[in-house]
Amino acid sequence: MAAPFPPPPSPRFVLRGTQSAVNTLHFCPAPGAAENPLLFSGSQNGLVHIWSLQTRRIVATLNGHGGQGVTWLKTLPQGQQLLSQGRDPRLCLWDLAEGRNTVMDSVQLDSVGFCKSSILVRGQLCWMLAVPGKGSDETNSSLRPLLLAGYEDGSVTLWDVSERKVCSQITCHEEPVMGLDFDSQKAKGVSGSAGKVLAVWSLDDQQSLQVKKTHELINPGIAEVTLRPDHRLFATAGWDHRIRVFHWRTIKPLAVLAFHSAPVHCVAFAADGLLAAGSKDQRISVWSLYPCP
Asked: Dihedral of CA 104/135/119/263: which sign?
């Protein structure tokens, strides 16, 4: 008789207390405690919560978006400053040093859609920020970075920022692109959409994008796609309440995590491989799967 299938894994622990749907997550190493990173969560009620994974409690709450949903979070080098994007629509820069939780500066955005900002860090005091806007030529730079963007028509586009021109564009999906991530070491990326298909694409030396592989899911709707920092795995947040984990090189499905009772909006990896997922059910599940070698 065949051996029974092993039971599905359970979260390592669950964080509760946002009192609203969780839209975005971001890990940041805690000062002097590399094994216990801080977890930042942004909620539909406009609040940013900072969680201690050691005590599994909220250690600070930031309120800077006027009750409008927070859609993106990113700490700057050394973790003393935080960027938060909301649907107010504003981008806020927070000072977190020495226990402070104050807005240092903010920028009014042109877009209230689902597009998230992106940051390119070039050093402790040098970084470049791309924000969503209505136009296609709103970025100015003396550097020559490249920017990948996913669009509502299902395409992924590579921009030369300084030249303000499209280098390459591919149509990967029949539905709007909801999330993408890129592996600069292997020069390939992955995108998910409102449809059922995951697309893996590559970038060659001529700055040309090419679709390499696709993987069809059972149910439509991928809210976010995130690569693990060591580029061995990636995870997706599903509208079907599921978190899916894949092997990055082969795109082989490794795990389907069924815990949430509503659509999963976001997934994030810590440097040690810890996986967090946030859902419309107001809960954050934290998983310990396939530890980093």
From this structure: positive
> Within this chain, do residues 42 and 98 fall inside the same structural domain, yes or no?
yes
| DSSP state string for 247-287 | ETTT--EEEEEE--SS-EEEEEE-TTS-EEEEETTSEEEEE
Residue that is written with structure tokens 């998983």 in the block: 287
pTM: 0.91
| CA–CA separation, 115 and 157 (whole Å) | 14
- Residue 191 has what DSSP assignment? E
Q: How many C-alpha atoms does 91 have within 13 Å on its Cβ side?
A: 21
Instruction: Give me the CATH number covering residue 200.
Output: 2.130.10.10
Q: Is 65 in contact with 84 (CB distance < 8 Å)?
A: yes
In the chain, what is the greatest distance between 2 CA atoms, to the nearest angstrom? 67
Residues 6+ apart with CB under 8 A from 244: 217, 235, 236, 238, 253, 255, 256, 257
- Rounded to 5 degrees, φ, ψ at 6 are -65, 150
C-alpha 233, offset from chain centre: 14
For residues 173 and 190, give the distance between their C-alpha atoms in angstroms, rounded to a whole number: 11
| In a shared domain, residues 64 and 188 | no
pLDDT digits (tens, 9 = 90+) for 211-250: 999 999 999 999 999 999 999 999 999 999 999 999 999 9
Reported as a single tens digit per residue, the pLDDT across 140-170 is: 444 568 899 999 999 999 999 888 899 999 9
